[in-house]
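Subject: two folds for Thursday's group meeting

Dear M.,

Sorry for the delay on this. The cluster queue was jammed most of the week, so I only got both jobs back this morning. I'm pasting them in the order they finished. Each block is the input sequence followed by the predicted structure tokens. Could you check whether the formatting survives your parser before we put anything on slides? The first protein is the one we discussed after the seminar.
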Amino acid sequence: MPSPELPSRRFDRPSPPIKESRLPKRVAEKEGVPVYQGKGPEEYAQYVEAYFSAGERKLFETALAIAHDARRAGGRVFIVGGAVRDEILGTPSDDYELEFYGMDPQDVQRIAARYGRAKAAGRSFAVLNLMLPTGRHLDLTFPRRDSQVGEKHTDVEVHVDPNLSLKEAARRRDFTIGAMLKDPFSGEIYDPFGGREDAHKRLLRAVDPVRFADDPLRPMRGVQFVSRFGLRVDPATRQLMESMVPKLETLSRERTGGEWAKLLKSSRPSIGLQLMFDLGIIQRLYPELAALKETSQEIEWHPEGDVWTHTLMVVDAAALLVRRERLDAETARIVMWAALAHDLGKPATTAREDGRVRSKGHEEAGEEPARAFLERLGADKLLAQKVIALVKDHLWPVMQFMAERDGTPVTDAEIRRLAKRLAPATIEELTWVAQADHAGRGPFPDPREIDQYLLPEPYEAGHWLRERARTIGVGREKPRPLLLGRDLLALGFPPGEKIGVVLKLADECRDRVDATREDALAAMKGANTLDDAADALRTLLPPDASVRH
């Protein structure tokens, strides 16, 4: 177990530097700015299509067409922000921001209107949001200076100036890797603040320390960049981010929640989460997570250490599952949030008994802290419902698998009850969360070789439960009703509220004693009233029948 005086740095490992041979080469200096040769328009279009799809290529070509129209109107257009950063880091983008120089915003809006619905989205006409007929959108922005005029992050005066120099326009950006501009026609990349070199080193560095502090969200943006791109933080930038942590409390839940969502889409969420802890963000804003660091675990089952360390390993294991199993976006979203929240009940339930650390009932106890944590982030109702359901039952797969392996069969009825209990979450989602929980442990000392270590054994419980649930049709949905109202009407019963009582009893017979549709109909044969039908169904339920959860 890691010593509390010497915290593990396993979650502070940036990706290796990008090879120089993969980076754009310097070709010139223009307007006092170093220029590198990126991919030209046709090469980039092919790059996007090969990496994403023909649809994503069409989005880039639409952005290029708008840039052509603006150039014909006497303007100058650059691709800015994330798309340029991603190209430097080695991947194409599916999100484009165009910045227009030497043009009046109203003229740009008229051009944009040829392609879709253009609406002003920023102060002083600084941003146009262009919604395309395909449902995709493009951000169209203008060179500007932002001036902080008050204490709140919203107290900013925006001054659009189409004649700003490239360097001055880029100065408002937060990090150097996002402050580059690309000429969409020549492919040349203008790099006023050394973003290309910082990308090479996998370094996150603020563009302008004074302006960086204008937006309190920037520490959170830095955190998710670190996770997504495997970066280390420049020491001066780290100090800036840490000094801004108190201001995070002034932000809306939606703004911080958006950065959390991006963090959990990364391949190594643990890096950003640990950075949040090191900066003091977790301790200040998220007490439910902070408590995990102070909660120990039984070393036999969790040699990795405290619950925080375990949770970081679990979210990384979940991210790997998402990629390996190619989970769809919604399933991935639910699995990642549930992986993060799965052990929030341990701080309240952990105690030492008979010399061992135990957390009895931590699954159920996780409901309230998980709900509070998700509310802090402005999580939508469906996400909260699913995550809480998964937290409360995350040990069910392994416990029931072990019971069956030890000779106590798990019935179809029990699995159907699980599916109903989880809804709107699904058994399939539960198995991925439980599998990540299983993988996020260790390594374990090998009892045969004292100097050797073992990883967790393969998680058989997940495959077992997915197959059982799929066979009875409840892997991705809750059980369908055993009987419908029309079945009772066909038997001659009158419509009314009591039909609902009989239908629920039929489902209970199925879920407790595996009764079939035919069993239920046979039991009600000869019943004259709905009350008689209900009594007949109750005969299928032994009074001492126990329900194993």
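Second protein, same layout:
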Amino acid sequence: MEAESILSIDATHPVLQVVLTQGTGTDIVVQEEFALEASTWWQRWFGSGTLPDNSRENQEEAPPSEQGGGGEVQEEDREGGLFPIKQLLLRLPGKAWDESLIILPPHQAINLSLKLPFSHRSSLNRIAPLEAQDRLPFPVSPFHCHARPVRKLSSELFDVQMDLYPEELISELLRTCKQWKFEPSILTIPAALAETCHGLYPKYVAQSALFVFSGETHYSIAALVEGQSVAYFTLPKTEPSADFVGKSLLNSWIASVEERLEHPLERIYFIGEEMNFQEWNREQLMRPSEVLSYEDILPTSSFLHLEDNFRSGLATLGATAVTKEETATLTPNYRTGRYLFRPELRNLAEGIGPLIKPAILLILVFAALIPLQYFAREQRIASLHDGLRAAVRQAFPDTVIPEGRELFAVRQKLSQSQETLQQLGTGGKISPDKELALLLDRLKKFKSLKLRRVNILREKTVLEGTTASYTDAEQIEGAMKKGRVYCDVSLDTGGGGRMGQQNFDLLLKKECGLS
């Protein structure tokens, strides 16, 4: 696979972790990495654990005339708690990337398993939210809902996964990013990276297992069956003094997933630093477990220490997920439905962009040439008219011809000349084969006629033959005189023939006045 440049943003903490990587799979290089304060935005959406009250309108800044510049960058947009994309982009002046993703906190995400008698996308988009509403004690209208078929249970039943995430959060996040000409191709949560962990080491990581990722206030947990994500959920973290019930909840969830899917989960993987999972009593879990640090998963990559016990490993793992063909479509990905990411439109815009100015210049040139072509054509037509009029007047000096009627006058003269030539019996007006056909047509009504010779020449045609009587010979002479084909017709009977037959010679002249 060709190496790609990926911008990955880990937004699971109030301090964003941003990495820009180059490469594929485990062979990647972290080109840029930094931390960015986003506490106002993060606390607004994720601090209380509930959706914020956004009754007031958001005050959003206008985008700058150009990106980059010197001076100290402000740490955070504090005017409305917006995602600090402006500050993020100013930290990467002149940088470019092929794809980008944002990893969001998981505790606003909801995953439901539904059994439906169809798997077509349009039917799922229409029916699945209604089915989800019947399963939940709160309205689903504030959530962006996306249903996807996981497997076929029978000929008429499908296992469908329903992903829900606060729609207002997604809408505002994308609107803020687009104002700064940045559009993340993937919006997801840590649980989506479980497939990536298996995809990087398919011979080591179990195909059917649980993956636990640590966030600021919650654990994000995903289940894989045969390398495919089938379910995920979130567990809250507790204060040090409180009892942690995560292990019992996880055991119950394992039993539920195995019963629903009829497939055992072999192992549990804790992804990250071991100190982030100290409250877990791993000996009480239903399945054997181990901790895989980000250094274990991506040993050739560097990781920036952003704070104590806080590294950019999740962001780097996210960048690796986008470059893997088999894991490029993460589950869940909230760029679906009305928020669907359309790279073909982006690529089209990027391809057309450099051509806009030349195209406008070309259009202006053509627009300027159109009147010039029109005037040149008019001048050419006027010149042809003048030349034609002069030629006609020279050919017919004694004829008064109104302006614009020259061609009509020429046609009249040609018609008159043609009539004169026909009256003079000029040869060449009819070809020999056509003349023969004409003769045969005129003679076919004479049943007693027998032709001995037909001689068609340029200036005359000679017919020799016999007929029943002198009267018939005269009738043949009369038939030949019809029309304007021959200027003179002469009949010579030359006496009677044998057995009562009348001989005749018929001379048909086509050029009169010539011997």
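Two things I noticed about the second structure. Residues 377 and 383 are 10 Å apart (CA to CA). The chain is about 35% helix and 25% strand.

Cheers,
T.
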